[in-house]
Design goal:
The protein has 384 residues and is an alpha/beta fold. It has one domain: Rossmann fold (3-Layer(aba) Sandwich), CATH 3.40.50. Helix content is 34%, strand content 18%. The strands form 6 sheets. A 7-stranded parallel sheet has the order 3-2-1-4-5-9-14, sandwiched between helices. Strand 2, helix 2 and strand 3 form a beta-alpha-beta unit. It is globular. The model has no long low-confidence stretch (mean pLDDT 92). Bound molecules: uridine-diphosphate-N-acetylgalactosamine (UD2). The site of uridine-diphosphate-N-acetylgalactosamine has 22 residues, from helix 6, helix 7 and strand 11. Uridine-diphosphate-N-acetylgalactosamine binds next to helix 6, helix 7 and strand 11.
């Protein structure tokens, strides 16, 4: 039986992974600071982390606590991170400190522990955010190319798409692990730093590192009370409060939504990987959907098709227009195949939503972004 230490294991993905590993006979230890933004100010152990989980409440920058948590550990899964993309653009020191210094401290502890008990592998959670604007091709030329960020004037005019010099709309290209890295948020930059630091130290000390670049993860257990959570949690909270989802831009932006149980399975496959090779892999569903369609499907499955999504025409600084994943490398290297399609995944999500206390349909995040000059545009409130 192997012992796995999950940093951030009390979070959304960590809890799913913990349950899965326990079911498969692993011993699991969790180290988590129980960030108030995610876990509430009381800092309680999440109820779905059972007594069999050895939870250590500590920040990763507390090296002594991490060394202690690493005792007898064979594999580390590094999930702990502050994850609010917009928030990272003004709480810069918090994000760099928590995500970069936290990872540096984790590695110092791993290196200090390796004489007593060397790690077999380290699995690091990263994000599709590191690809930034992504890769596009023109309608007349198949060659993929990177694009500069959309200009403010273009966005003010409500022209949302990337275009070539002749003004023709560019077509988004699925992102592979070889796509250029061009982070556009402090959060994404800190995640790339985590990747690089982990690979560099893993190579230097002979510890294989698997990096999983996650696309838009959703599912039961998503933090509904956290205003910086992913869009499905925000839409879910609004719909439960009888409010329509609000779409930024024109709602036609593409995203790849991957169900959390598929993500947990990908982590499990990475933990069980053998061999010395370090790898970096996209984890997604492999198919993207326009946000407006997703919002309508969620409203329909929640029994509120009358709450038609509203196109606000507003936009967030640094938002990527489209995001599509190529998951062939994960299929080849890990044997990863997504098993939960969007319909089934949304059904599970909706069922879980129905069991939750009514969340606040908070627009705190939008308001806070606006205060910091990171949310733009007038509310047009027209149906898509
Ligand atoms: C970000 C991160 C991603 C992951 C994810 C967490 C980047 C580029 N991406 O992805 O790595 O951490 O966050 O969920 O760093 N939207 C609305 N209405 C709302 C809220 C959002 O239309 O009320 C739009 C938003 O403009 C975007 C899409 O929904 O086009 C998805 O937004 P998100 O915040 O869920 O995630 P995303 O794709 O920015």
């Amino acid at each position: 039986m192997e012992r796995v230490l999950i940093t951030g294991g009390a979070g959304f993905i960590g809890r799913h992974l913990t349950r899965r590993l326990l079911d498969q006979g692993h011993a699991v230890r969790v180290i988590d600071s129980l960030l108030p933004q995610v876990h509430g100010s009381q800092g309680h152990k999440p109820t779905d982390l059972g007594p069999e989980v050895d939870l250590r409440i500590a920040d990763l920058r507390n090296t002594a606590a991490v060394v202690e948590a690493l005792r007898g550990v064979d594999v580390v899964v590094h999930l702990a991170a502050a994850v609010g993309v917009g928030q990272s653009m003004y709480r810069v020191a918090d994000y760099v400190g928590g995500n970069e210094l936290g990872t540096a401290s984790l590695w110092e502890a791993i290196l200090a522990s390796r004489v007593d008990h060397p790690l077999r592998r380290c699995v690091v959670a990263s994000t599709m955010g590191i690809y930034g604007e992504g890769v596009y091709r023109s309608a007349v030329d198949e060659t993929p190319r990177t694009v500069p960020p959309r200009q403010l004037g273009q966005l003010v005019a409500g022209d949302w798409e990337h275009r070539d010099a002749a003004g023709r709309q560019l077509v988004p290209f699925p992102l592979t692990e070889a796509s250029p890295v061009q982070p556009r948020s402090v959060y994404a930059l800190s995640k790339f730093q985590q990747e690089q630091l982990s690979r560099m130290l893993g190579d230097a000390y002979g510890i294989p590192v698997t990096t999983l670049r996650l696309f838009n993860v959703y599912g039961p257990g998503q933090a509904l009370a956290n205003p910086y959570a992913g869009v499905l949690a925000i839409f879910g909270a609004r719909l439960l409060n009888g409010l329509p989802p609000e779409l930024f831009e024109d709602g036609q932006q593409l995203r790849d939504f991957v169900h959390v149980t598929d993500v947990a399975r990908a982590f499990h496959l990475a933990i069980d990987q053998t061999g010395d090779a370090s790898t970096t892999l996209n984890i997604a569903s492999g198919s993207a959907i326009p946000l407006v369609d997703l919002a309508k499907r969620l409203a329909g499955q929640l029994g509120r098709p009358d709450l038609t999504p509203v196109v606000t025409g507003r936009y967030r600084s640094g938002d990527t227009r489209h995001s599509l994943a190529d998951i062939s490398a994960a299929q080849k290297v890990l044997g990863y195949h997504p098993e939960v399609d969007l319909h089934a995944g949304l059904s599970q999500f909706v069922q879980w939503l129905g069991q939750q206390p009514l969340p606040r349909a908070s627009s705190n995040a939008t308001a806070e972004l606006a205060v910091h000059g990171l949310m733009h545009g007038d509310s047009r409130t027209s149906p898509p």
